[in-house]
Amino acid sequence: MTTTRTNLGPLTTPFTYPASCTLNVIQCSYCLVAWQAQTCSNNPNNAAGVQDNAACWPPRATTGSNSISTGVALNGWGIYSPGLSCPVGYNTACSATGTTVGGFQFQFAISAQETAVGCCPPNYTCKWGGSGDAQTCFSVATSGSFSAVQCSSGTSNAFSYYTVPSTVTVTTTETSTTSASASGAVSASASTITSTAVNIYEFNTVTLYAPMFQLVHQASDVSSSSGSSGSSPAQTSSAGTGLSTGSASSSQLSTGAVAGIAVAAVVVGLSLLGAFVYFFIKQRRAKRQIAYAPPPNLAGNMGMQQPPMGAYSTQDGSYFGSSTTPMSMKSGTMQPSPVYEAPVDSPRHELA
Predict the structure, then answer these.
(1) What percent of the chain has pLDDT over 90?
(2) Phi and psi (nearest 5°) for 21?
């Protein structure tokens, strides 16, 4: 069964959750539960004087809501409507839309046209135990340390860092006094008896609680807020609910701009590929022309000459063709070479 809700007022701009509100209040050094957003006061409903710290809640605009106080920690104050922005330092941890089955069951009911979100610190989860309980955020610490204080008679003390898991030794001393008695002539005086007990506590987890802020809005609240000048939230929308988480986000490109950049990147890539293919083909053609260059022209070419077809070379560089007329090269042109004949009566020498 839900609780009759109280509208604490609108929350359309980010509220910064004070750093002092993150300090946990723990009832004793070996207790397994601690609460954020508390103060040490003269709360008659709590033996240690622990009470909700009103400065840890966003401002209340509704008449009378600023004086709300609860008898126990985090007892649920009401809703913020229209609520469009979780406090800075908080995230959207749970949500529900109208009467849709499957969303979080909030302590304060919402109508069919409304959407509600529960804002919690990072790594905290929404919790509501049903009728008689209050919705809140909780996180179970299994390792590490956290800062905490204890309250005693309305004042804070014993600030320290608590480590999980841990072993704590607690020594308690009890003193009792017996009354004097007389029996005949013998009288017994009063006596004081002191007893000391040593207890060892081992714990592996500590449950940490923090206030949950329930924000409620309708679709018209979101559209009117985004359409008004200077009122559009600068925070990242959470879980498709149209709400912001309160943490500043960097500017994002529109869908059209992203598409334009993608098209331009494709065009540039294709252009570079085309240029590469063009120069590759051009280079191959140039190599092919060099590999199959025609032989040099004999006329006017002073380079190395090739002998005519069917010619035989001599020691002086002249060539003899298949005909009986030898040819020689002078000034780059082929000329008839003189023929020298050995005398007929020249002596012949035989090889030994």
Answers:
(1) 26
(2) -75, -15
pLDDT value for 236: 36
Q: Which amino acid is at 309?
A: M
Q: Do 49 and 84 meet the contact criterion of CB atoms below 8 Å apart?
A: no
Q: What dihedral angle (degrees, nearest 10) is formed by the CA atoms of 92, 96, 102, 108? A: 110
pLDDT at residue 120, rounded to an integer:
97
Q: Rounded mean pLDDT of 318-328? A: 46
Would you state the structure tokens that stand for residue 177, as one six-digit string?
A: 């006094």
Average pLDDT over residues 295-314: 46
- Alpha carbon distance 94, 79 (integer Å): 14
Residue 292 has pLDDT above 60, yes or no: no
Q: What is the rounded distance in angstroms from the CA atom of residue 252 to the CA atom of residue 333?
A: 82
Q: Quick one: tokens of 116? A: 């509600």
Q: Quote the CA–CA distance of 73 and 38 in Å, as a whole number.
A: 7
Domain residue ranges of the chain, discontinuous segments joined by +: 19-174+192-248, 253-290
- Read off the tokens for 260: 């334009």
pLDDT of residue 230: 44
Tokens of 322: 């298949």
Task: Tell the burial category of 297 from Cβ atoms under 10 Å away from its Cβ (0-12, 13-18, 19+).
Answer: exposed
Q: What is the pLDDT of residues 138-179, one digit of tens each?
A: 999 999 988 899 888 778 887 888 888 988 887 777 777 766
